[in-house]
Amino acid sequence: xxxxxxxxxxxxxxxxxxxxQPVTQIIxxxxxxxxxxTQAAIEQPREDxxxxxNATTEDGAAEPDLAEAIASADPEAGLDAGPDNExxxxxxxxxxxxxxxxxxxxxxxxxxxxxxxxxPSPIQKAAIPELMLGRDLVGQAQTGTGKTAAFGLPLLQxxxxxxxxxxxxxxxxxxxxxxxxxxxFNSYAACMKxxxxxxxxxxxxxxxxxQHLRRGVQIVVGTPGRVMDHMRQGTLDLSGLRSLVLDExxxxxxxxxxxxxxxxxxxxxxxxxxxxxxxxxxxxxxRISQNHLKDPAxxxxxxxxxxxxxxxxxxxxxxxxxxxxxxxxxxxxxxSEGVIIFARTKAITLTVAESLEQHGYDVAVLNGDVxxxxxxxxxxxxxxxxxxxxxxxxxxxxxxxxxxxxxxINYDIPFDGEAYVHRIGRTGRAGRSGEAILFLTPRERRFxxxxxxxxxxxxxxMEVPGNASINQHRLDRLRQKLTTTLQQxxxxxxxxxxxxxxxxxxxxxxxxxxxxxxxxxxxLGLGGKPLLLQGEERWGQSRSGTPTRDRDRDRERxxxxxxxxxxxxxxxxxxxxxxxxxxRIEVGWRDRVKPGNIVGAIANESGLAGRSIGKIRIFxxxxxxxxxxxxxxxxxxxxxxxxxxxxxxxISRLGS
Length: 656
Ligand code: AMP
Fold this sequence. Notes:
Layout: H1 11-19, E1 24-28, H2 35-42, E2 51-52, H3 66-72, H4 106-115, H5 122-132, E3 137-140, H6 147-157, E4 168-171, H7 175-188, E5 196-200, H8 206-215, E6 219-222, H9 224-233, E7 243-246, H10 249-254, H11 258-267, E8 273-278, H12 283-292, E9 297-302, E10 311-317, H13 323-334, E11 338-342, H14 346-358, E12 363-366, H15 372-383, E13 389-392, E14 405-410, H16 417-424, E15 434-440, H17 448-455, E16 460-461, H18 467-487, H19 493-510, H20 514-525, H21 547-556, H22 564-569, E17 580-585, H23 595-606, E18 616-618, E19 623-628, H24 633-641, E20 643-644, E21 647-648, E22 652-653
Parallel strand pairs: 1-9, 3-8, 3-9, 4-6, 4-7, 5-6, 7-8, 10-15, 10-16, 11-13, 11-14, 12-13, 14-15
Antiparallel strand pairs: 2-5, 17-19, 17-22, 18-19, 20-21
């Protein structure tokens, strides 16, 4: 393979080059996540499983236009931020992306603008210049720090769309991460012509993947097992590979993929760039870095400690698609005088604000698109109470100082501990106390510890408010409003006299009591909206007690699964549970297999959720595993060929 050519670097990158000498960079503060949900809503993989940028197909026809879909999510391209964002034309200067300073090509900058990335995160600032030079890199950073763009952007910058064989291979521990990374690449490259991204993982149609690989893709993102299968079969040609990324390397180690990763590394061309990202650096991962990376740049993201004691801080865990509903519930049950909701991108601020507006809140938006004069007017309205809820991005809310903010909601987890401290500091001002609530998706739960260290105190857990608590709030608020209206009437004396006359007349006509009349008037005041939330209670029940959840949480926090012997003792009977079937797999102690290897491999290559995998027992030369009944034939066939510890599972039904 030809050595990687850097090509002429833009002037600003050459400038960077001279400055960027240090091998190791340690950066204080960084965890971020959150925009993923919105992005996922914007970027749907094509049905055929291939991701494609704004490219033309073989026959020259335009691809279904993802760029258009992304562009339509751009605040500038349509969504209306409401009166607060209406500014005179001359005030609307196009924001210059801070990403331009890296010397990224214009198509990439356009792609970033479309998904609302305004400022690079710390890991991006540190890693992008190094990777653009073609250096190897070891990054100690978690998901949520913006690491995908940290490697995705420079690798796309160096990509040759004219070369139709894979130039970038990203190995991920799970199929979900593979999908996510492929989607991210595709969104960054939405405005680049001819870039094809293919996620490959087990459980998806093998032949389909072969066809896409034959037609030509430049970026492959996959789980180790399926990538190895393609390499062995000769359907994944890596002779032209320029860069390999090992994403979440410690997870790959934990899930038993590390030998596979080493095998892949050994098959690659000698001249290649290797990028390794890992949240932790166990010795095994260090060794890989020493043996397979050349003089790598090192970037470590660290948390900073700070103080946030005056502010009561809580967090709740909610799945991405339910965040908006959870937000409405939190506002109903916890809403205070002034609320600031922090969101990751411009697009999310608009989505959130629109939804709240529909639910009757007085909302304003502050994001990078709001010009300075407008910003000041908005803050003034927040200060005097004409606006009660502000939805903002970090950059836009910088330095915001309004005393009456009683609640800060981190709708998206912040970039880092420092950003968290800054955000919650918008409440608890002028000697008052304040509340802060952090939304975490289940995957983001592992960043909690970092934020707790940043504020030097625990961030308590809370549940999404359930119907009972919301209803109690509604009743309290109604009583409060009624009392206030009695004490400070809204209408002038003339109007009140007219209202009294109506009451008298209706009472006479209907011969009803004052109580009945007052009740009818209150009902009228509800404006047709139901007083109480009814129906299925989907929130508010403590789900933490259920064994599967606990198990998931342990795994998400990187904890070990309980010894399988313990789990075995949970039930005295020896057979599988009613809804499970027992299978035999041809790998055992002598292959040094651990339960984690089996769970990881089966979950990732078959598409089964980890929690649906039941009891595992490991014997000398084989193991048994309980899986949900009714496994489809194609999944069964996939599992038969699946390799764990370099041995085919040869799965079979026990007793068959
Ligand atoms: P990652 O750590 O790569 O999984 O990124 C976490 C989340 O942050 C994803 O939803 C990204 O889309 C988002 N993100 C990454 N970089 C930026 C940025 N510079 N500005 C705004 N959002 C970002």
